[in-house]
Structure formats: C-alpha cells, structure tokens
C-alpha cells in the first residue's frame, strides 16, 4: 500500500471532500458479498493470501446460509483521477442485510451513506428486493449507481436488463455499469464511478458532535462495538458520550475505523464512518438509529429517523427436555446482548411445560434465533406455530394485546385488529393468474399492477401479515416455478373476523395447539389438526376424543380407539425375564410422554403436529 493510500486510511486526517460513503443494495443472491470481496481485494485492504469468500460475513450462520445479517463498514483507499492529476479517496463501504426481516437495519445503513450501488444479477433482472431497497434509497435521497453483476455467466442478458434498470431509475441504458464480482471485470471502473458520481459528505465540523448508530454488535472480549457515521463535529477517545434517546452516558474507551480489521484512531470527523467501544455489555444500550453526542457539548437535536425495533411475529419456545429450561434462559439472555430486536418473557404451557414466548422481526429472524439456540447452546427445542400480534377491543372499551393465541379473550369481544403488510411481488407475466389466485386465498387485495418489461410484471397487494408469515413464500415459489420474488413492509392494521380455535383431548384444551384464524378457515384448521393428531397419538387403554372447538362450539371431531399396546403379544412361552424386560422398556417409553389429563401424548407428537414440515409428521406416525 502506498504512503498516500495509507494516509487515506488514517481517520480524522481525511477532509470530507475526499470521503465517499456508499452501500451496495441488491436482491438476495445477486452477488453483493462477492462484489464487496472483490473491492477489498482490488483496493488492497485485504492481502490476497488472507482473502476468504465473504470476508465481511462474520457469523457462522451467515457464512453457511450465504446471507448477510449484520451490516459492517469497511474503509478502502482508492486513487482516482481528478481535474489535475490523481488523488487518494477514502471509500467507506457499508454492507447491508438483504432480507425483509431486517428492513429497519437496511434503512439505517442507507441513512449513513450518500450513495448506493444498485446491483442486479444480469441473468435474473430486477427482483422484489431490488425495488424495495431502491425505494428505501430514494427516500434517503441517495445518489444511485446502477450496476449489472455476473456478466461472466453464459445466461447473462446485460443488454435486456440494462434497459429494464435504466427504465426503472430513469437513466440511459449506456450508463448502466457492467461488472463481474467473480472475475473482477469492471470493478475498478465501478470504484472510479463511485468517486466521480457520489457527492462527498456534508456536515458542520465546528458544531457539537452528532453521530448516527447504524449497527451495534456484541463481542465477547470487547463488549458492545457500535458502528457510527459522524454527521457533525468530531468524536475523540476518552470523551464522555451520550445516547440521545435514553440520555445514558458512557466513557469512550476506543474509537477507530475498520479496514477490514479494527484500527484505533485519535478521532472521527465529519462524514467518517467507524466504530466506538464504551464497555457496555448490552446492545440495547447502543441502539441502531440512535444519535451519539458528547456530554461536554451535547447537540440540541438528534438525527431523525430513530425507531424502536418492534417484534412482529411471536412463537413459544420450549426445551424438549424440561431440565434444559435454565440453559434456554441463559442462552436467550446471551443472544439478546447482540440482538436488540429479540424480545421474550417466560411462559408456562400445560402441554409443554416451562418455556418462553419470544418475539421476532419475522420468520427468518425466528429461524436464525432457533438455529443458533440449537447449535450454539446445544438445545433441543419445540416451537409453537408462529403468530402475529392481535389488538382486541372488548365491548366495555378495554384493549387487550394478544401475543399468544391461548390468551385470546373469550366473551364480549368488540373488535379484533390484525397487522397487515404491503407486498410487492415480481414475476414473469404468465404467472399473474396463479399469483392472484394465491393472494386471494390469503385474503389479499390487489393494489396495482405494472409491467416492468413485456414479460415481467410488478404486483402490489395488501395482505394480512398472519397469512404470509407461514408458508406464503413457499407457495408463491412453487406456483411460479421459483420465478417470483416477494418483499413486504408493515402497513398498519385492519379489523378482521377472527376466531380462536382450541383443540381438546378428552375434553381438555391443549394450549399449545390453540390458534387464531380467520372465521372462514377455522373449520379447515380444526379438521386438519384433529386428523393430524389422530395419526400421531398412540392408542390408549380407553377411547380418546380429539375435538376442535370455537368457544364451546365443537367444529370437528376424531376418535382414537381404545387399546393397550400389548408388548407381550409376541412372547409365547414362559420366559419371565424376557417379559419383564419388555415391560420395563414400555415403562421407559412412558417417561417421555406428556400427560394431558389422562391421555399420554408422546413428545414427538407435539413436535410433529406443530411442525409445518410434513416429513416430520410422516416420521412420527405410528
Ligand atoms: N458467475 C458469477 N457468480 C457470481 C458473481 N457474483 C456472485 N456470484 C455467485 O452468486 C451467489 C450469491 O452471491 P453472494 O455474493 O453470496 O450474494 P449476496 O447478494 O451477498 O447474498 P446475500 O448476502 O444473501 O444478500 C454465490 O454463489 C456467488 O458465488 C459473478 O459475478 N459471477
């Protein structure tokens, strides 16, 4: 690295005119991480021998699933031509998560930039998240550089998609850059364009310091590492800083930049992006979107746009082995340190024992948390069917917020409201009919439809969140042979005709199976659950009725016929020790049963009945 380049890496020494802050926005799998890797390599911040794929994705799960969950910011020096020769610029690349569950994090990362590279796969074209992220970037007034990626692929159609992209953002198709993150082709030209097209950051160097938090991660050794973008003034080490939303103050122990390992510095000035370490142990004290200022000279007003992360989807998590409960509690406490959006409280279920009701941003968030609990903390868990939050107004005017279907109030219910989302679906036009059919079956309302090109269409729907959190995406994919893409945003709530369906075993409600569903779907839920349980619960010594009920009205019924499984039936003759052994084994098996009233239900039956994956149910059938 040249001395000049080294200087561009030196924080607080770079004037704002020589800084460019940008992010890469793309649909999932369009190659953002690969392009970021190439940029790190080409600018020389990562030596070729240290290079590994997806350098910026640090969490194991991110790497395995190939998705980016937490954003990171890296500073790269880049020499570009300016009017009278060459100058070295400091490029700050802020990596953003790509999934809808993390839209809020994306929008904060965007707010830390002046421009965005809009990356589109040259073999796929624009997808739903391309649009959703583009709209977010436009809301944040970012300059957009349109780029087609993967031009090395034989299936790439750069000309066709350059037109589509140009039509979308209103530029000339010739202005769309063409790169390959894999081979590196066109990446240098892209770096030059970032310098040429994006405006430098603006801010008031003399004003009281203001910096926006766009990410905050928990590190076992260093406590919380907070990523910020300085808007005004300067932050210096050993200052006392204040979080403007909570007024909490902390000593700044260290600050610096990432390139791509942490590099401590003497200060962070206007337009710079870097990290802060204060010794706090919990990311909730350093929240994404909050404004950092100094205690000595606090700023008057925070940078706008802060919002508390709000869980949208809830599910009960229970250890399969009840003695793992304390481990589960500790594990959730640990995950919470690194995940401000995770919310949970203890819950007891008659059927499943002690556990937690956990709030998530969405289904992917749920899956990731569950997978981390099982993998990093070695827990076996049962999770109940995910549900959304219902707001219920009783006839006497009291409001009840329901995060657990089994707590859904009976009696004088006035109005029930459920959350809705605005969904954008992109697909080849031949699938319009199939998509409409699916959305209608999910209580969707068509808001509008536009053709992006001759054969690709964008459809906008309003849908209840409850209908899409479950298996909407899978169904959409299968009905469109994988070609449709989906993105959605919260859009308030609506009044809906919802009922709670209970499942009763021998007259006793099994709380884990209660669900809040639309009135028209109550019967289908009841019969399918009763049918499933009939297959899963072994015969008992007496007849067991399985019923589905709305309040006191039974809507479905199945019977499990009586029989005692006679383990001795194959044992002719008089070998008493063998008989005893078989009876002992039967007793062992019974320990793993849960008793619902007098009915013994094997643990696997719960797991299978609550699982949306039919193969689990198939396996558990006796
Ligand atoms: N042929 C080719 N493949 C590429 C190129 N860029 C990325 N890929 C491949 O496309 C897949 C997705 O790339 P990623 O970089 O992980 O995509 P991403 O957009 O970062 O994905 P998320 O982090 O999940 O949003 C990987 O299998 C890459 O190897 C490219 O320029 N050419």
The CATH superfamily of the largest domain turns out to be: P-loop containing nucleotide triphosphate hydrolases
Largest sheet: 8 strands, antiparallel
Assess the beta-strand content as a share of residues.
25-35%
Strand order of the largest sheet: 10-9-14-7-8-13-11-12
- By DSSP, the count of extended strands is 32
Entry summary:
The protein is an alpha+beta fold and 622 residues long.
Characterization of this structure:
It is a peripheral membrane protein. This protein folds into five domains: 16-197, Rossmann fold (3-Layer(aba) Sandwich), CATH 3.40.50; 210-294, Elongation Factor Tu (Ef-tu), domain 3; 313-384, Alpha-Beta Plaits; 391-496, Alpha-Beta Plaits; 500-621, 2-Layer Sandwich (Alpha-Beta Plaits). By secondary structure, it is an alpha+beta fold. The chain has an eight-stranded antiparallel beta sheet. It has a six-stranded mixed beta sheet with strand order 2-3-1-4-5-6, with helices on both faces. It is globular. Helix 13 (522-536) packs antiparallel against helix 15 and helix 15 packs antiparallel against helix 16. Bound molecules: guanosine-5'-triphosphate. Residues 26, 28-34, 66-68, 98, 149-150, 152-153, 180-182 line the site of guanosine-5'-triphosphate (GTP). Guanosine-5'-triphosphate binds next to helix 2.
Which key terms come to mind for this protein?
single chain; 622 residues; alpha+beta; Rossmann fold; Elongation Factor Tu (Ef-tu), domain 3; Alpha-Beta Plaits; 5 domains; 8-stranded antiparallel sheet; 6-stranded mixed sheet; 26% helix; 33% strand; globular; binds guanosine-5'-triphosphate; cell membrane; membrane
